[in-house]
Sequence to fold (104 residues):
Amino acid sequence: MFVSTMNDVPGAQVVRVLGEVSGITVRARHIGAQLGAGFKAIGGGELKGLTQQLQETRDEAYGRMCENAQALGANAVLAMRYDSNDIGGSYQEVVAYGTAVILQ
Fold:
């Protein structure tokens, strides 16, 4: 599955637009990562546990978006974006979305 944040792909032609596709996931924050982040915040620096968790969350949403695009018969997703929210201070919501197309 070809995925791009661009609206067009140089050298390729969109022959059919299949519509918007998305993949969403909501995850609870890992208590260990939260505790580590609290201690790390005192001294500053990257919160590696939370960074890893967010990357895994994004990967899951991305994969679901690609599965939805394939189910429509797409071979590409254009104008792909991520959006995220914090829900109640304990949960992370991440959605990956874009336009499913057939490229030639």
Q: What stands out?
A: DSSP finds two helices and four strands in the chain. The helical segments are 31-43, 48-72. The chain has one domain: 2-103.
